[in-house]
Amino acid sequence: MGKEIPTRSEDYSLWYNELVKKADLAEHSDVRGCMVIKPYGYAIWEKMQQALDTMFKNTGHVNAYFPLFVPKSMFEAEEKNAEGFAKECAIVTHYRLKSDPHNMGKLIVDPDARLEEELVVRPTSEAIIWNTYKKWIQSYRDLPLLINQWANVVRWEMRTRLFLRTSEFLWQEGHTAHATQEEAVRETEQMLDIYAEFVERFMGVPVVKGRKSEGERFPGAVETYCIEAMMQDGKSLQAGTSHFLGQNFAQAFDVKFANKDGTLDYVWGTSWGVSTRLIGALIMAHSDDDGLVLPPKLAPIHIVIIPIFRNGEELKKVSEAVDPIMKSLRAQGYAIRFDDRDTQKPGFKFAEWELKGVPVRLAIGPRDLDKATIEVARRDTKAKETRPLAGIADEIPKLLDDIQKNMFEKALKFRENLTTEANSFDEFKSILDGKTGFVSAHWDGTIETEIAIKDETKATIRCIPLDSKKEKGVCIYSGRPSEQRVLFARAY
Question: What is the pTM assigned to this prediction?
Fold first, then answer.
């Protein structure tokens, strides 16, 4: 594979794009800015969905589904939200096509079928959901309302990249309503913790939990919390966000409830979401020049078994030997592929499954059977060893657990090595251009300084870490007083 695409060090962006396609995860669609998620890529998304959906339901959330189309006037109700997404909105203006009288076989927009009100194709669902909540909420007895939806959204991106930024993408979005500010804030923080737990425990990617600066805050939110992950090229990727909406959307859509003493008040809201860009994060955080490196908890195939054989008789003997192993592992919940194709040589199969990131590869042939051994290869370190065939079904789960742990620890060490303090603007720029990664630096808290730093360096404030301690200093750019350090980085 290394001969077919650039290595990470040669061209990280091209390496990523080619890897997504060659590993059969996704491809560009003929629809501008959209992608086709192929079965292997969608299998990863399904595993992400299953894990997250369980975590959501364990905390009392339920799933629902809301319309794809939002009337323009409804979308405009919360001004900051509408303004924030305006440039990315796709609009439906007509509801019918008709034959072109001047060019038979072609269709044109029927000018008589213009909609009375234009419809926005949802870039996010706050508007349609809060308009619905107005009908569902009358009393404190109706609260809290804890709803999530799995859906697609459209944001008309000008520059797209598979999984990371496409005009249409898949995600989940939670939208909750509460009787008190305290309860809504707890919900916002709880969902951030769930995202962090998922990304670290399932994806094997360490994250920094923090708050967004005002300039990076979700449009219409009072506070935005986020998790930031470090990719192998030293850039940051926002892996998930959780927003405390205050009463902004409740006021915009007049969602009131009667509290216990009978007085009316606006409800308090949150929204939170992650998307298929997590697949992009998974690839960029772990993979190497030979292909994907997938954490066992999200790998569509945990173990591939490659029989070494020259004829049908040898294949039969190998198959009989590994059949009880496969049955035992499948009974433990592991997905196994027995690659007995006679159209490809073992070396080709090794490279193919390495490209696809299967965590464990087992290889066994007649000589191994004579010795009662089997070759075991792990994808994360590429280490190979010969082990006894007896008891291998009990050893593989331990190996998979070790791979999952090792991938997280490797990524954590990488992030720690690429997190640096800067105490001057020159030092700040030098780190960004040389070492890269997270730069911890003082900032005066103003949007003007934030914009100036971004314009000059293309680095943004990724977050104000939640565990950041107060530390008096001076802003690296303006020289004005600062109370704590924030994390800067160039980002996806």
Answer: 0.96
The residues, any chain, with a CB within 8 Å of residue 115's CB and separated by 6 or more, are 92, 93, 94, 95
335-357 confidence digits (pLDDT tens): 999 999 999 999 999 999 999 99
Structure tokens belonging to residue 205: 């990617």
Q: Are the CB atoms for 281 and 231 separated by under 8 Å?
A: yes
Task: Render pLDDT for 430-470 as a digit per residue (tens, 0 to 9).
Answer: 999 999 999 999 999 999 999 999 999 999 999 999 998 89
Peptide bond before residue 144 is cis, with ω within 30 degrees of 0: yes
Instruction: Tally helices (H) and strands (E) across the chain.
Output: 14, 27
* The token pair that represents 244 in the structure block: 């405390």
For 87-126, how does the pLDDT look when each residue is reduced to its tens digit (9 = 90+)? 999 999 999 999 999 998 899 999 999 999 999 999 999 9
Rounded to whole angstroms, how far apart are CA atoms 282 and 205? 8
Helix or strand (DSSP H, E) at 355: helix 346-355
Tell me how many degrees the CA angle 462-467-470 measures, rounded to the nearest 5. 95
